[in-house]
Amino acid sequence: MNLKIFWAKWWSVSAIIFVLGGCNLNPFLPSPPKPTETTSESSSLPPITSWRKIKSVYNLSLDKSPTRSIAISPDSKILAAGSFDGILKLWDLPTGKLFRTINVNTSVQSIAFSADGKILAIADGEGNLKLWGIDKGKELKIFTGHNLPIGAIAISPDSQILASGSWDETIKLWDLKSGELLHTLKGHEDIVTTLNFSPDAQFIASGSYNGELKLWSTETGKLERGLAGHAFPVYKVLFTPDGKLLLSSSKNGKIKVWEVETGLINYTLHAHSDAVTDMTLSADGKVLASTSPDKNIKFWDVRTGLPINNSVQGDFVTVLVFSPDNKFLATGDENGQILVWENLN
């Protein structure tokens, strides 16, 4: 087995490490430093009041294996979550009522809703990329082209483009409606772990397991800029709603905030004592929530990099997502439990 396939398999079985309580996703890399807050120079701004107080309103069961993916529909009515064991469930978010279960048969690697909330894209552990109709729960389309499993998918804000990033080190851009392959983006030298479109859909950001962070044109499929700064795997990238900033999280517990126009680092947040495996932004882009194997969910003021005086401790939350209406935070943990938290501010 060559080194590339070894790391691919290591990423795939990371759930086992989570369950066994390992702190590092990669045992051959040194442990990260203890977290200290490095902030921007905008600390004179008025403090964020949202998400200072929260309460758990639903405890939903997905499966007994770690939660691999989670998403909330754009209208904040549907919560979807998938597990390493291949179970995908859909709940009515306001009531917590389960209304559909889909057996994907293999790990639900990544999921994404279309802008109208009528379509759910699903990437599984065998490299399959499928579209499902929410109303009838039926498979609509299959996209084929990657020769290794897909690690991340994203749908553009205008629902025109479906993006898939793979262990084969490529990113493919598809026409969501026709299924036509628009571009194959080549340039990464390791597994593509995360994707996110800019709000205007002109760019897509990607991160990989070797710490590469890249910005691509969706129109031409060409690389616009490589962002150098991460020496460890990049696990999540997010554009702010205004498209001016790009956030990236890494294995060493750091979150970097980049200026998209210049490609410069605005500030670096030493967020967790272990890998920042997932993060989510509120709809207004002011609040960031992050999670880690250190078993903390933390909330941050994106404008300043300062912590919002609230954190949640418990089981290792593997994935999390804010609802677009800013009323809920949904989290999925290493035991397959889905918790829905309500914003009390």
Describe this structure in words.
There is one protein chain. Strand 26 and strand 27 form a beta hairpin. The longest helix has 10 residues. Helix content is 5%, strand content 48%. The chain has a domain of 215 residues: YVTN repeat-like/Quinoprotein amine dehydrogenase (Methylamine Dehydrogenase, Chain H, 7 Propeller), CATH 2.130.10.10. With 345 residues, it is mainly β. The N terminus is likely disordered. The strands form seven sheets. A four-stranded antiparallel beta sheet has the order 1-28-27-26, with no helix packed on it. The chain is globular, with a radius of gyration of 18 Å.
Describe the protein's topology.
Blueprint: H1 3-12, H2 14-20, E1 54-61, E2 67-72, E3 78-83, E4 87-92, E5 97-103, E6 108-113, E7 119-124, E8 129-133, E9 138-143, E10 150-155, E11 161-166, E12 170-175, E13 181-186, E14 192-197, E15 203-208, E16 213-217, E17 223-226, E18 234-239, E19 245-250, E20 254-259, E21 265-270, E22 278-281, E23 287-291, E24 296-301, E25 307-313, E26 317-322, E27 328-333, E28 337-343
Antiparallel strand pairs: 1-28, 2-3, 3-4, 4-5, 6-7, 7-8, 8-9, 10-11, 11-12, 12-13, 14-15, 15-16, 16-17, 18-19, 19-20, 20-21, 22-23, 23-24, 24-25, 26-27, 27-28
